[in-house]
Specification:
Length: 142
């Protein structure tokens, strides 16, 4: 089993690591594991920039998931785990989306995690025009 793990320290800031079943690990600015990770890696290499904002990173994660998951649309019932620093992962173990953003509190300078609820994830998908379409609405519009 491969793992992605992220952390923060004041000297090196955010750190993202990938470890594989052999125990080897590597540091990344943006990476992913799971099905279609080659496609996702390619997208991240093309679009990730060192000066990316949190909002831009969320959009990049959403686009990457939409292009690499085995589904035509995304919804909070699909199983995807991702967080910023950039680390989307996919698995078919359950049907839930998990999404977190790691930031540093501007006042306390302490790291904090914002874990999005399913309704918040669905709102992000709508915001980035990646939400699941209602088939009945689509058929009526056609």
């Amino acid at each position: 089993m491969s793992l992605l793990y992220a952390g923060y320290d004041p000297h090196y800031q955010f750190q993202l690591y990938h470890s594989d079943p052999s125990g080897n690990y590597s540091g990344w600015k943006a990476t992913c594991i799971g099905a279609n990770n080659g496609t996702a890696q390619s997208l991240l290499k093309q679009e990730y920039k060192d000066d990316i904002t949190v909002e831009e990173a969320i959009g990049l994660v959403m686009r990457t998931m939409s292009k690499t998951m085995d589904s035509t649309t995304l919804g909070s019932e699909k199983r995807t785990t991702c967080s910023f620093p950039m680390m989307p992962t996919t698995t078919d173990a359950t049907r839930i989306v998990e999404f977190a953003v790691l930031t540093v509190d501007p006042v306390t300078k302490e790291p904090r995690a914002k874990i999005y609820r399913p309704a918040e994830i669905d709102a992000l998908l709508v915001k980035h025009d990646l939400a699941k379409k209602d088939e009945d609405t689509e058929m009526k519009a056609a």
